[in-house]
Design brief:
alpha/beta; Rossmann fold; six-stranded mixed sheet; 2 domains; ABC transporter transmembrane region fold; elongated; 25 helices
Length: 645
């Protein structure tokens, strides 16, 4: 990432507080707009034509007042009236074409930016998503992308339109009456004073509005999904969350009100200056008409041009601030695009067509807080505890909260696993055993490269995982996590996520092996049944069996499994265990073992404690040593076996 945020591109002079937009930012924006260059040129051409056509009606009015009516020329009167109809229609038709081109550019930029952001986020490691609020990312994908598009199709186009209108209007006003034109121009500085001061205030308000909206979006994302809603209800915190949302919503409301009021003051001042200019022109022009130095038609036409003069100059007086303000959204988009991809294919990475399943860890260590790999944090995308839940009303942490925060930061820097070295032969079942927090889940994340080791290396069939393409690595690894995730879609769609080209017979075969086929047939819509948000319409055992069927459909050579069956009823647990036995046959399996039957069947048991491998061997070997495994066996696994009896 280049530096630390959007302020690297848009800075402000300490004395004048005027924005300075860097060339690097403009180059990046131009690069995004480059595919739409032809449409942009046509749009500019349409702007020029519409601006020129806008100059014609006042001239028609002058002809009407000075010639057609005094001379009683009916033909000229009819012709001028027809022109007053044709010109707006022609201008409107060209305006429709301009709007079409502008919309194509705008929607195209939105689509391109969203696709680039989404693709980049998909390439980010799991560390990125565990450090980032989903609501903040949604804000970047939605609000910021739309605002960035407006910078090109609204702010930039308005600047061009106003500049063209201003220049063409000044040219024709000078041709009509140069003295009145100079009088009109004299008050130009009065436009810049309110524009500069209020424009700076508006810029700050808009920036604050974006931050407030992002915070509110993040809060909604957390509390309105199924897991968040369930947690809120289980702890009876609905009133607290409503209060918190009300506060955030009120902050967004208050910023919006301030923005509207300040904007209205701005336009009121511009209107007042325009009124002064118009009055001066009427006063001076009236004297010229009375003195017969100017015709009445010319004065009427001239005053008609004043609106086309003062409107653009009022907008252009704040154009620099407006443009810099609108480009803030581009910067928020670039912040994400510039984040380094932690885990990606190395140059010359190999594709493994066939995998035997020989896994070797060599002195592997991992720290989840490896900041050098994650890169700089995003402004507004927090990796820290939610300040809206623990902070005081002024947004500052109390001393106790600050101490907790420092302890949290210190804990985050600790090693998740340290100095791991072990080997799993092809086709073997390796059981991971240890107390909670020992590092078992971390090992299962390292093998499919959800994280890369901070130190050491992991080998698959003799190849460093970092030298294997991610696509071929994930193609040979299947994983069933403790928390099964299903999309809010049909059972069939969720199964096909493993292999989109699988036939119905293959789907059913996998489901039979996972002991879920008969249950699916009892559902009203069978395989086309919608499972609900995160699969919440299914029980825990049913979700796990669907997940097992999904892995079977993928048919991986290496299986990673968190054998979390303790919360299931005995019938579901028996069905899942039978399914897992079929899944693990002939595969290299790495299992976080919770059942004694799995541990006894393991070819090698890896005993972990506080992130380190303290013992490894078979069940009999480890019992004979009388170490941590023997203690766990006597206090946990043997008791479970007795309870099962």
């Amino acid at each position: 990432m280049h530096g630390g945020g959007w302020w690297q591109y848009i800075t402000y002079d300490e004395r004048t507080d005027r924005p300075h937009i860097s060339r690097s930012l403009l180059r990046r924006v131009a690069q995004i707009a480059r595919p739409y260059l032809a449409s942009a040129l046509l749009t500019l051409g349409a702007i020029l034509i519409v601006s020129l056509l806008g100059l014609v009606p006042p001239l028609l009015i002058r002809q009407l007042i000075d010639h057609a009516i005094p001379q009683r020329d009916i033909f000229a009167l009819n012709l001028l009236a027809l022109g007053m109809i044709i010109i707006p229609l022609l201008s409107g038709a060209i305006g429709v074409g301009q709007r079409y081109l502008n919309a194509r550019i705008g929607e195209g930029i939105i689509s391109d930016l969203r696709q680039a952001l989404y693709a980049h986020m998909q390439r980010m490691s799991l560390r990125f998503f565990t450090h980032t609020k989903t609501g903040e990312l949604m804000s970047r994908l939605n609000n910021d992308v739309v605002e960035a598009q407006r910078a090109v199709t609204s702010t930039f186009i308005e600047i061009i339109t106003n500049a063209v209108t201003l220049l063409t209007t000044l040219a024709i006003m000078f041709s009509l009456e140069w003295r009145l034109t100079l009088l009109s121009v004299i008050i130009f500085p009065l436009f810049f004073l309110p524009a500069r001061r209020i424009g700076l205030v508006l810029r700050r308000i808009v920036r604050e509005a974006m931050e407030r909206n992002a915070a509110m979006n993040a809060m909604m994302q957390e509390t309105l999904n199924v897991s968040g809603a369930m947690l809120t209800k289980l702890f009876g915190r609905q009133a607290d969350e409503i209060t918190r949302f009300t506060r955030l919503s009120n902050e967004v409301r208050d910023v919006g009100v301030r923005r509207a009021v300040v904007g209205r003051w701005f336009f009121m001042m511009l209107s007042a200056v325009s009124a002064v200019g118009t009055a001066l022109v009427f006063w001076a022009g009236g004297h010229l008409v009375i003195g017969e130095a100017l015709t009445l038609g010319t004065l009427v036409a001239f005053t008609s041009y004043l609106a086309q003069l003062y409107g653009p100059i009022g907008a252009l007086s704040n154009a620099r601030v407006d443009f810099a303000q609108s480009l803030v959204s581009f910067e928020r988009v670039f912040e994400v695009l510039d984040l380094p991809v932690e885990i990606e294919d190395a140059p010359g990475a190999i594709t493994l067509e066939q995998v035997r399943g020989h896994v070797r860890f060599e002195n592997v260590s991992l720290s989840y807080a490896d900041a050098s790999r994650f890169g700089a944090r995003l402004p507004g995308i927090t990796t820290e505890p939610d300040s809206t839940r623990g902070a005081t009303d002024n947004g500052k942490f109390t001393e106790d909260e600050h101490e907790l925060f420092l302890r949290w930061r210190a804990a985050e820097r600790q090693w998740a696993v340290r100095g791991l070295s072990f080997e799993i032969q092809p086709g073997q079942l390796a059981a991971l055993v240890g107390p909670s927090g020992a590092g078992k889940t971390t090992i299962t994340y390292l093998l499919p490269r959800l994280y890369d080791p901070t130190e050491g290396r992991i080998l698959l069939d003799g190849y460093d995982l970092r030298q294997i393409t991610l696509a071929s690595l994930t193609a040979h690894i299947g994983m069933v996590t403790q928390e099964t995730f299903l999309f809010h879609d049909t059972i069939r769609t969720n199964l096909l996520y493993a292999r989109p080209d699988a036939s119905q017979s293959e789907i059913e075969e996998a489901c039979r092996a996972a002991n879920i086929h008969d249950f699916i047939l009892t559902l009203p819509d069978g395989y086309d049944t919608i499972v609900g948000e995160r699969g919440y319409r299914l029980s825990g055992g049913e979700k796990q069996r669907v997940a097992i069927a999904r892995v079977l459909l993928k048919d991986p050579r290496i299986l990673i499994l968190d054998e979390a069956t303790s919360s299931l009823d005995s019938h579901s647990e028996a069905l899942i265990q039978a399914a897992l036995q079929r899944v693990m046959q002939g595969r290299t399996s790495l299992v976080i073992a919770h059942r004694l039957s799995t541990i006894l069947a393991a070819d090698v048991i890896l005993v972990l404690n506080e992130g380190q491998l303290v013992e490894q061997g078979t069940h009999a070997e480890l019992l004979a040593r009388g170490g941590l495994y023997a203690m766990l066996y006597n206090t946990q696994f043997q008791r479970r076996l007795e309870n099962a009896r």
